[in-house]
Amino acid sequence: MNATPESSAVNAGPVFVPIESSSTERVTIPRIEEQLQVGKQTLETGRVRLTKTVHETREAVAIPLLREAYTVERLALHEYVDEVPVTRQEGETTIYSVVNEVLVVQKRLLLVKEIRVTKQQIRHEETQTVQLRREEITVERTAAIPTPERPA
Hints:
Residues 29-139 form the DUF2382 domain. With 152 residues, the protein is an all-beta fold. It has a domain at 45-142. The protein has strands spanning 47-81, 88-90, 93-102, 108-142.
């Protein structure tokens, strides 16, 4: 199969070129080579629309609370004592002694009364209305925008 140099770009077969040389020179014959370049491009295949909706509801919430209350109890004793009693603790009750000095033939301490202060923890629930939010997202698919034909 003989071909001319002009048709060798189309013909992928061997190329025969007549050489007019009687010398031993080296002759270089150009050849054609194809190279591949690969690329990529973004192609839109569809669209979506997201819609966010916030729903609000009011709900009653029971909240446990703790408060302290004190009960004061006064006891009249009218007992003579030799020295002032110290403040003491009996469980959750703190006892403070109150004394008077009384003049008698001899001086003695008369325990007049005790004040008892008791600490109590009282639990109760209080209901409050609070605002709660809930979000909802809706996805809506739309058609793709037509694009020109891609080259092959």
